[in-house]
Amino acid sequence: MRHADVDKLTVAVDAALARQRRRIPTGSVRAYTFAVVCALGATLFEAWLQWLDQDASPLIAYYPAVALTALVGGIGPGALVAAVGGLAAWWGFMPPAFSFSLTRYGDKVTLVTFCFVSLLLVGAADYFRRVAKRLEDEEHLRQLAVQELAHRLKNKIATIQAIISIRLRDQPQGPERYPGPACGTHRHGPPH
Q: Domain extents for the chain?
């Protein structure tokens, strides 16, 4: 991918995330609904991966779901996806299937690692969400200030035009011609 294409993609993703953040307030019912949809989507994707390859990681689909949910909905919804994802993978995708017992040591390590990484993802995504929100708010204030300055400048120009118009109306003969320098500063006539 060329650098320009990456920049365009980055701008498009940033714009889409900003729209979602505006539509889904942090910690709201919408945010938790979004979390449930992300968890369900990740679970279905994980089931499809397990159907394709039994040795696929049982938690791989939940990492992006946790990050996306925390970016859009905040800490609570992100933590919900992490909890639902961990429990769903533990119960449905780690042997023995459909039980909460783990027989392999590697599965225990995988589950603990998922919990730790999910906490990091939720914290980092929430931090970036707050920074992005602050930058959007600052950009909005900057645009308001620019609009206000433009409005004031138009008012000043209109005032100056009105003053000039009144002055020209009072003096219809045009601008006065001022005499040259004051007497005594120039010598008239030939030098002595």
A: 3-128
